[in-house]
Structure formats: structure tokens, C-alpha cells
Amino acid sequence: MTTTQERRQEYRALFKSNVEKRLLVDKAVRIIVFACVIIAIIPLGSILVEVFKNGAAALSYEFLTETPGAIGSGEGGIGPAIQGTLIIIGLSSLIGVPIGVMSGIYLSEYGDNKLAKSIRFFNDVFMEFPSIVLGIFAFLMIVLILGHFSVWAGAFALSLIMFPIVARTTEESLKMVPVTYREAGTALGLKKWVITFRIVISAAKNGMITGILLSVSRIGGETAPLIMTILGSSQFFSSMDVPMDALPLRIWRLSLLPYDSAQLQGWGSALVLIIIILGINLGIRYYFANKRGHGLIGRLIKQGVSKQK
Amino acid sequence: MVRARLKPEKPGKLPISDKVFKIGATLAGVYVLIMIALLVFQLFSESYPIWEEDGLSFIVGTDWNAVEDRESFGALPYILGTLATAALAMAIGVPLSLGIAMFISDAPAKIGGPLGFLVELLAAVPSVIYGLWGLFVFRIYFKDWIEKPLHDAFGDSIWLFSGTPFGLDIITASVILAIMIIPTVSAVSREIMKAVPQQQKEAAYMLGATKWEMFRLAVFPYSKTGLIGASILGLGRAVGETMAVTMLIGNATGIAAIPSSFFKPSQTMSSIIANEFVEASPASLHLPALIGVALVLLLIAIVINVVAHILVTRMLKVKEGAINN
Asked: How many interface pairs between A and B have CB atoms less than 8 angstroms apart?
């Protein structure tokens, strides 16, 4: 039985409406998906604009160097906070980087057994622990035992946030070094640690530095663990055993004060902090993205989602 | 210069320096396990007084009073507050992140790269700056444009929209949280969507699928587990986030903190710790109670993250198998 002209017309209309509907849905999804991207970027733009706009008004030489003035007076500055942030970053790196690097070496060079697998797994899980809990841990381990708030406690807490990131990025970078490099070292009769430090690490240097700097930019903005460890202060650093200030803490304190001048100083501190953090972040990304392609950076961003066996 | 050792080592026997090196590396690796064990042990032993005193009623109680002689601690409102804000943040943030991941995984590298980079920059902004921005910028617009109209329209009939639309409440904190989990969820989901074998996508296209149908037929069924894992990873982040939430949630305590409406102030586990930890006296039960809250928070976070990592790594493993075959 042949299809009549009318039937054919009908089929054609059905087909057309079906395709049209599907294309319409497709178009709608495209628009929605694009809108998602825009919606996500708006806050970033707004934050940057507001911080730079409001923060710029607070900036001055005094603001960057002096101790905070009386509450609500709008005088003084955030000198101790800037100094404290630099000190705490330096100290936590002192603890966190060696442990992280050695741990990464273990995972990459000796990491083919059950223990290493569980370390890798818990390392990734540890990376996502709430930072405030790590702060309490440092409080219990150091502040409570010493009996006073201490800069070491803050550095310890931040090093806990830092070392898993360093470990994972070190592992990833070491694994990218061709095995022939190691074989060459072995063929020369070198000891394993010499091979690792002199050959493998120098080949993987860029990736490791990226990881370390990313972890620095991460801990630079951490606030919660500092509340119970270095507490905050309005004086310049004097000793390891007294409270110290840091930029994120200062921003938090200022934002709680009901004065316009405090709010302005808060924006100023936020500007300084965001310049430090985004500066490190953008700097390494720009520098290494040109050098190494985006493979490694993509991996760093996943922050601990393992692709390994 | 590296000097070659001419004397060959006996096979199977490590020189002392290598032994030390291996032990050092292993210790550094084990450090993370020690820290986790110590962390759980310390939190438990320091919060022991509150478990001894209240037992399970610490978890299900709703009172929170640190005044001397009238002390009573119940963590339920904060547990609920954490779950409510995290759930809301997921409801807002996960669809957005999936959309972003769809866009970027499918866009040409020239557009996808920079856009992905911009989204990831969201993760670099410190939490306290989200709080500051939320407090002084976002809250004002959100209150005027979204909360007030919703409240005026439905406030009397739907309990979710009752309360005072003041901007320091559950919904504001959740929206900020949602923004903060977007980079995590979208970056992981993007990797997972990219892990879908090209042949699958091409097969869908060959059947005449549109782009959306390709995602629906080829990408989503294949990457379902991984995408769920990615979302749970975002949940883990939302549960532990402190500063921005503390600054925006309004900080109610006790029974008032039980979340019942979008426009009510509440409190999360991490925010009550941030708010009260410094003032808590070690002599009273206040400090053990806060540490007990931290222990509960930690256990929730561990469960969430372990599940998420298992799901995500399993997915990415499948990918490598599929590509190699």
C-alpha cells in the first residue's frame, strides 16, 4: 500500500514539528548553560570591583604601616596585620613545605603499595577537612598545653592545611619526570636520594613551586584557624608566645564594628589581602601556563581528586 | 656536580643514606595518618566531659546556655543549621556548576580555558572577603530585590518565606556558600565530563542528537556516579565553611537557631565555634561542648569526603580503562 499524498504531508509536518521542538530545547539549554557561566562570574566581578573601589579610598602610607588607632576613630592602619600575615605564611611554610615535599616524594618514588594508597586517599580527604577543626586541633595541641596563645600554634594549624596540597602537587610533578632520568642516574651508580634530589626534583621544580605557591595563597586567606591560635592583636610582632595579628583576622574584626571608618579600613585590608593572594595566584598561573601548558594547573585545581591508580 | 659512585652496591642491599631517606619519606607520608588519628583522639578526649555529662542528649538537645550554674548544651540546632545551609547551597550551586561544567567541557579551548580559569578564581578569593562582600554589598541587593518581594508575596501563606527579610539569615548565607562551592563542583564535574570517551559522544551525534541530547544520552548516564561525587565534594566544602557563614547567618543561639524559614537567622556548627570559642572558659563545660561540636562536624566532614572521593576516583579510573581499551 503506497502512502497517499495527504499522509506524506502529515508525516512531514510531524517530523518538522519534532525537529523544531528538539532544536528549540537544544537552544534553550545552550542559553541556560551560558547563563550559568555568567551568573557564576558576576560575583567575582562584583567582589573585585567593590574591593578595589572601596579599598583604594583607604590606602595610604600610614594605613599600611601604622598600628590600629582607637576603635571607630578611623585612624591608624594595618601594619601589624600585614606583618603578621607574612610571618605566619613564612612559619607555616617552614613546617608544611618540607613535610609536604617529603610526603610527595614518598608517594611518587615509593608509592606503589597499600600503605601509600591509603596515605594518598587520606591525604585527599584531609585536604577537605574544615579548617576551623584544624584550628581547634592546634589549640588543643599547643595553646592549651603551653597555656597561652602562640604564633607557633597558628603556624602549625596552617601547615596542616598546606602540607596535603604540597604533597599531592609534588607527587604529580615528580610523576611527570620521565623514568629514563631516574634510570640514567641509577646507571651512573648514584644513590637513590641523590637521584631524587639532584635529578628528579630539579626536573620537577616548576610544578612543585606552583603547588607550594598555590598552597601559600590558600593559607594566606584562612581565618578560622587563626581565631583560636594567634587570636589577633593590635601591636607589632614581639614574641612567639603572645597573640599576633593577621590580615584575615583584622578584616573579620573590622567588619563586625558598626562604624563607617572601620568598614572603610576593612575594605582597605581586603584590598591588600586580595592583592597578595590573587597576585600569587595569577602570577604563577601566568608564568607557568606559558611554560608548561595547562595540564598541571588543571590538576592542581581539582585539588586532590586523584587520577592515579 | 654529581660524582659517580664507582663501587657497585650489592643488589638488594640499600646503602645507609638511602635507608634513612626512605624512612624519612615514609615518615612524612605517614604524618597525615598520624595527624588524623591524633585529631580524632584529641577532639574526643577534650570533649569527653560533655559526653560524660550529657551523652547523646548533647546531640539531640536544643538548649544552649553558657551562663554559669545554668549551663546546658545541645548541639542539635547547629547541626540542623549546618545541614540546612549546606543543602540549600547545594540546591543552588550544583545545577549552576553542572551548567558551567557542560559549557566548559564542550567549548573550544580558546573560550573554555579562560572561562574555566575565571570560575576557578572564585576559589582563590578568601572566605573572609566573601563575608565582607556579602555583608556590605550582596546582602543589601539580595534583601531589596529578592527577600522582600518573596516575603510580601508569600510570607503569610508559606512558612518558608515567613520571618523578617533582613538579609542576615539562612538564605543569604546559603547563596554565598553556593557561590563558594561552584569552583570545586564545576572543576571536578568538568574533568569527569571530559572523561567520557569521545566515541560515545560521536555515536550520539551520529544518531542525529542535538548537543543537549548528546549530553543526555551519552554524557550523563556515563558520568552519573562521578557527578554525584563532585556534588558531594561541594557538600563537604559547604559543611566546613566558616567565616562567610559566620558573618551572614545572623548567629541565633539555642532553640531560635533551629532553621524553620529562609528568612530566619540561624547558626552552623562552624559559626558557633568561631563565635564562642575564644570566650569559652576551659574550666566550665562550654569549651568541651564547643570541641564536641567540632568533633561532630569533623565526623560529618569525614563521611562526606570519603564517600565523595571514592565516587570520584572510581569514575576517573573507569575513564582510563575506557580510553586505553
From this structure: 301
